[in-house]
Design brief:
The structure is a single chain. This protein has 474 residues and is of the alpha+beta class. The protein has 17 helices and nine strands. A five-stranded mixed beta sheet has the order 5-6-7-9-8. Strands 1-2 form a two-stranded antiparallel sheet. Strands 3-4 form a two-stranded antiparallel ribbon. Helix 4 (69-78) packs across helix 11 (219-255), helix 5 crosses helix 9 and helix 7 crosses helix 9.
C-alpha cells in the first residue's frame, strides 16, 4: 500500500486487483492514498454505473432522457432571468444616475461602482454554473496585498479578471439572459402545449393556439399533436441541455481564471504556507525557550530548596513529607525536560539531524541502527520536519510493529532528502486505522514532501520520507 501526497496520485500508482467480493477492479493507489477511498467502499460505489461528469457525456448515453440532465439544463436557462434582470436594473440605474450627477462629482462613485458590477454578478454566475457543469469554477481574483477597501479597489481595478467579468456582465444583462429565457420557455412550453392540445379540444370544445396563426381546433389535429409533442419533448431535452452546456462553456471561458492567474494564486498559497510554517516554528521555539528558562529553572530552585529544608529537619513525619515533595518536584522536572525535548531538542539545533536521530534511536525501546549520510547542515525547516518524521515513525515501530530491530537510513539524492525507516515487524500498517502515519504525512506535505508506505502482511514495513532540499549549509 502507498500513501501518496495529495494531488500526486496518478495512473502510474494504479494496479488492477480483482475483488472477489464484488467481481470488480479498483485502483490500488487510490485506495492507499491518505484521505482516499477504502477499496471496499470504492467497489460499492462502482457497482452502479458511474454518473456522467458533463452534459456532453450525458447526451451521448441511452439513459439521458431518464436522468436529471434535461431538468438541470432547463433550470440553468430559466434561472438566468433572476440575476439578469436584477443586474440590468442595477447597472442601468448606476450609469443613469451617476452620469447625471457626475458634473457635481457625486456620481463618480456610482460610475466606479458600475465598473465593478461584474464582480458580484460573476460570482453568482460561477455558483449557478454548477447546475450544468459540476466542475467548480475558481474565483480568479487575487487577495489584496494590504487590508482595507482602498487596497481592495486598487487590486480589482488592475486585474484583467475584473474587465472580463464586466464584459460578460454587459453581454449577459443585454443579450444572454433574454436568449436563455426564450430558449427555456420555447423548449418547455411548446411540447407541453402540443401534449395538452386534446384537453381544450375534446373537453371544452375549444381550440389550442400555439402562436398567432397556428391553432389546433379539430379532433384530428389534437390527436396528431400528441405524438408530435412527444417527439418535440425529446428534441427539446437535447436542445435545452446542449444549449445550456454551450452557455456554461462561454461563462467559464470568461469567468474562470486563466493559467497565469492560477499560477499566481498558487504562488500566493505557497508563500502563505511558508509564512505559516515559519510562524509555527518560531512559536514552538519561543515556548521551548520559555519553558527552559522559566518553569524548568523554578523547578530546579524548588527542588534545591526542598533538599536544604530536608537537611535542616530532624527525622520524622515532617522530613518524610519534605522528601516526598522533593521526589515529586524531581519527577515534574524530568517530565518537563522530556516535554521540552519533544517540542524542539537542543541537540537538533546545535549538531544537526544525524546526531538528533541517534539520540532518538537511543531512547527507543526497539534497537535502531542509524545511517544518515549528509554533507552538512540542512535548512532548519527541513531538519525539523525530518526529525519529527523519524520520531513518529519510530514511535509507530515501538507501538504497533512487534519488531525486534529497526533501521533509519538516508541521504541527499538530486536535491531531495530521502529517509527510510524500516523494521522487521509483522507488517500490515494502515494509515486509515489511526497508526499515526496520517499525522506524519500531514507534517511532511507542509514542506512539499511525500511519504510512501510499504507494509505487506508479514513485513517488513518501510516508511520512505522525501523532502525537497535544494541547498545545504556548511
Amino acid at each position: 500500500m502507498k500513501i501518496i501526497e495529495p494531488g500526486r496520485a496518478g495512473p502510474e500508482h494504479w494496479s488492477e486487483i480483482a475483488d472477489p467480493g464484488y467481481g470488480l477492479h479498483y485502483p490500488e493507489g487510490r485506495a492507499g492514498m491518505v484521505g482516499g477511498d477504502r477499496p471496499r467502499s470504492y467497489a460499492r460505489r462502482m457497482v452502479s454505473v458511474p454518473p456522467s461528469r458533463t452534459a456532453w457525456q450525458a447526451m451521448s448515453e441511452r439513459r439521458f432522457l431518464l436522468s436529471g440532465w434535461p431538468w438541470r439544463g432547463a433550470a440553468y436557462l430559466a434561472t438566468a432571468a433572476v440575476p439578469g434582470s436584477v443586474g440590468l436594473t442595477v447597472i442601468g440605474a448606476l450609469i443613469t444616475v451617476g452620469g447625471v450627477l457626475s458634473t457635481v462629482l457625486i456620481g463618480i462613485p456610482m460610475l466606479l461602482a458600475a465598473g465593478l458590477a461584474g464582480v458580484p454578478l460573476a460570482s453568482a454566475e460561477r455558483w449557478r454554473m454548477r447546475l450544468i457543469d459540476p466542475e467548480p469554477a475558481p474565483d480568479p481574483h487575487r487577495v489584496p496585498d494590504r487590508p482595507g477597501p482602498v487596497a481592495w479597489l486598487r487590486t480589482r481595478f488592475r486585474e484583467p479578471a475584473t474587465r472580463r467579468e464586466l464584459a460578460y456582465t454587459l453581454l449577459f444583462v443585454t443579450v444572454l439572459w433574454p436568449l436563455d429565457l426564450g430558449v427555456a420557455v420555447i423548449g418547455i412550453c411548446l411540447p407541453l402545449a402540443l401534449l395538452s392540445a386534446p384537453i381544450p379540444v375534446f373537453v371544452a370544445g375549444g381550440h389550442r393556439e400555439l402562436w398567432p396563426g397556428a391553432t389546433i381546433s379539430t379532433a384530428a389535429q389534437a390527436l396528431a399533436a400528441v405524438p408530435a409533442g412527444l417527439v418535440l419533448l425529446v428534441v427539446a431535452a437535447y436542445l435545452l441541455t446542449g444549449f445550456a452546456a454551450a452557455r456554461a462553456w462561454l461563462a467559464r471561458a470568461l469567468l474562470a481564471p486563466r493559467e497565469d492567474e492560477l499560477i499566481h494564486k498558487l504562488a500566493e498559497v505557497t508563500r502563505s504556507r511558508e509564512r505559516l510554517v515559519r510562524a509555527f516554528e518560531a512559536e514552538r521555539r519561543r515556548i521551548e525557550r520559555d519553558l527552559h528558562d522559566g518553569a524548568q529553572q523554578r523547578l530546579v530552585a524548588l527542588s534545591m530548596s526542598l533538599g536544604l529544608a530536608r537537611l535542616d529537619l530532624p527525622p520524622g513525619p515532617a522530613a518524610d513529607q519534605v522528601a516526598h515533595a522533593q521526589e515529586q518536584a524531581a519527577q515534574a522536572l524530568t517530565e518537563l525536560r522530556e516535554l521540552i525535548h519533544g517540542i524542539h531538542p537542543q541537540i537538533l539545533t546545535d549538531r544537526g539531524l544525524p546526531p538528533a536521530a541517534l539520540d532518538v534511536a537511543s531512547r527507543s525501546p526497539v534497537p535502531v541502527e542509524v545511517a544518515l549520510a549528509l554533507p552538512g547542515r540542512l535548512p532548519r525547516t527541513i531538519e525539523t520536519t525530518a526529525y519529527f518524521a523519524v520520531c513518529e515513525a519510530l514511535a509507530n515501530v515501538a507501538k504497533h510493529s512487534g519488531a525486534s530491530r529497526a533501521w533509519v537510513t538516508g541521504g541527499l539524492v538530486d536535491g531531495v532528502l530521502v529517509i527510510e525507516i524500516r523494521d522487521n515487524g509483522v507488517g500490515g500498517a494502515d494509515a486509515e486505522r489511526g497508526s499515526g502515519l496520517t499525522g506524519l504525512t500531514d507534517r511532511v506535505t507542509l514542506v512539499d514532501g511525500a511519504v510512501t508506505l510499504s507494509s505487506p502482511a508479514g513485513g517488513p514495513t518501510v516508511v520512505k520520507v522525501e523532502l525537497p532540499c535544494p541547498q545545504t549549509g556548511p
